[in-house]
Amino acid sequence: MTQATTGTSAEQAVPRRKTTEPGAGRTRPAVTLLVLTALLVVSATAGLAIGSVQVPPGQVWGIVTHALGADWQEPDWSRARETIVVDVRAPRVLLGAVTGAGLAVIGTALQALVRNPLAEPYLLGVSSGASLGAVSVIVFGVTLFGPVSLSVAAFMGALGSLLLVYATARTGGRITSARLVLSGVAIAAVLTAVLDLLLLTTDRGNEARAVLAWTLGGLGGVNWGTLWLPSTALLLGVGVLMMQARNLNLLLAGEEAATTMGLDVARFRARLFVLLSLVTGVLVAAAGPIGFVGLMMPHIVRLFVGGDHRRVLPTAALGGAVFLIWADIAARTIATPMEIPVGVLTALCGGPFFLWLMRRDARRGTDRGVG
What we know:
The protein has 371 residues and is an all-alpha fold. 73% of the residues lie in helices and 0% in strands.
């Protein structure tokens, strides 16, 4: 009798969440997706056009379609401009879109898995673990897995740090928001200290300086040959998470309710931890640790599409892609000819957002526990 009652309440809890979510139902999801898709096209065009060498948008599309084999207009651009657009800016814009989308989706899933609105890869130490794994490979020259050694090491570091944060924050079979964030910050600080020690003690000075710049997050230095791995990781992550969107919705009602509805919470959480660590590791290996995208985007898009993860995940992916493309444009142009690490700009945006989120939850008396 108790199970039946709990099951009924669990079924009611998920739809009730949709109606109480801030801004739920304010915008049709299809409209939001169409607007964000259009914004992504505009943002990509701007990313290809804006830089030390300005390229008119019409010419940008002429160069891109010419490179794809569709000669719809007579080439009226120089070879140098074509090289800048196709070989320099296009891979960078694509990596920005992939990384932004991936981090936003990872943040969305983490917030549901640990039932904490402050969860995201950077704050929970996942990015720091991935960075330490990647830097260890560079410093020690490990090539056990060939060209993907960096990504494998970043994945192992991300998974290890995520499990460590989760185990540290769990006390008495329960996790609170405060303990989770504090554990993530503490472990991230330790991992960052170890990373800095590796860089200071390595005898490869030039390499150490390059790695130090990479740890601030950036999209420079990418080429077409290295884009396949982060793109594949993004498609894998989004595809699996979309298939698990219903289970992520069940977790919003609490672990007991989700278990009553037939979800093996422990196994589900363990599998997704591995998936999210894999995607995070690959993205960090490609672009460095870029923070706060996974914190901001899920909260912003929920204002427009509600809390259903079938809507939040694709919307957050598009929003994250648009945001990081523009962050990279700003990083390239604000202090030209010097380039600001894009991770610095996302932190300048995300830090105040994080403080606002903490104050909002404090006013609401929010301290959600995870069993």
